[in-house]
Write a structure and sequence with these properties.
193 residues, 7 helices
Length: 193
């Protein structure tokens, strides 16, 4: 899409046929990605089956136990650390804070995307918590991180892929809650006048 805009500016009207080709290619790519994402759960399930077959159902029980522990840690952290920061540094009731940010937290949980949640996060902190646009625009930012996996055996990948999505839902939600808690604290600490 960036190249499309560059071509539009550089070539102008004569580049319109090429722009139509670029648009068509973009639509094809989006459709392919959408189709792959639709079938991904089936693929993940198929990669888990041999691992469970080889190791028994104890693998699933172990992963479920770890997932429960992880979520207790995620939300314990969110309520204790972020709730405490909002109360003691942001001078806002944690109950009011968590009630106000619920739409953004649920969206983050469902989409596993901090970036997709930015507009909802901004709306929550600005409209429900009274944070200024200046603060929310700075504090709610998405940061991309690349995690590489080296040395994992191929048989573990199916389990990793399946459990990672479930872990990422909670991690993204807690990340977004932290962004919004930071907004509330900054609003209290920074004088914009």
């Amino acid at each position: 899409m960036i190249y499309k805009q560059i071509i539009r500016i550089a070539i102008g009207e004569k580049g319109e046929p090429l722009l139509k080709v670029i648009d068509s290619c973009n639509e094809v790519c989006l459709k392919v990605i959408s189709t792959v994402m639709y079938f991904t759960p089936i693929g993940v399930f198929c990669t888990i089956v041999p691992v469970v077959e080889a190791n028994g159902t104890s693998t699933i029980v172990s992963l479920a136990t770890q997932l429960v522990i992880l979520y207790v840690a995620f939300y314990g952290f969110a309520f204790i650390v972020y709730g405490g920061a909002v109360k003691f540094h942001g001078k806002t009731s944690p109950f009011k804070f968590f009630r106000a940010i619920m739409p953004a937290a649920l969206n983050a949980f469902g989409t596993c995307s901090s970036s997709a949640t930015i507009p909802i996060s901004k709306s929550c902190v600005e409209n429900e918590l009274g944070v200024s646009n200046q603060i929310s625009s700075i504090a709610i930012a998405s940061f991309a991180a690349l995690a590489t996996m080296a040395g994992l055996p191929a048989g573990v990948m199916g389990v990793y892929i399946s459990i990672n999505t479930l872990c990422d839902m909670g991690a993204t939600c807690v990340n977004v809650i932290g962004d919004m808690a930071g907004c509330v604290v900054l609003q209290e600490k920074i004088d914009l006048e």
